[in-house]
Amino acid sequence: MAAMNQRGRRRIIVISIVSVVLVLIGIGAWYIVTFLITLKQIPQAYAAWTAADLVIDHMEAHDGAWPEGWEDLFHAADIRKANGMMLQWKVEELPSLVAVDWSADPAVFVEVSAVGDDPPFLVVTRPDGTEFPTVWQGRELNEMILDYLRKRRDQEDVAEESE
Fold it and tell me: How far apart are CA 27 and CA 63, in angstroms?
C-alpha cells in the first residue's frame, strides 16, 4: 500500500510538472505571436501617422480644404521634405497601406462628438476600411485630424470675435 501511495504521489508530481511546463509554453507562444503581430502592424502605424500628418499639412496650406487624392498628399510630402521636416513612412508606399476618404467634408465632421474612446469618424483607415489596430499613443490619425480641425475652428472663432 505504501508503494501504491508513493506511485500516486509521483504521478501527481509528474502531472503537475507537465501541466506547469505546458502552461509556460502556452504563455510563451502567446507572447511570441503577439510580438509578431505587433511587429507586422508597426509599418501600418507609421504609415497612418504619415498620412494624417500629410492630410493636416495639405489642409493647413489650402485654407482647410480636404485633399482630393494621393497627388495632394505627395505634394504635401514634398513641401514637408523641402522644409526639412520628417516623414514617418515612405510616401510612395502609403496607397498600399492607407485608405483616405477623398470625399470627406471637414466642415461636417468637425462638429461631431466622440463616442467613448473611438474617433467620431473614420476618414483615414486601412485599405479594407477598418481602423488601424496599432497606433502610437496620442497619434490616432482620425483624432489627430479632428484635433487640428477643432483648433482651426477655435482660431477662426477668436479671429472673428476680434474683428
Answer: 52
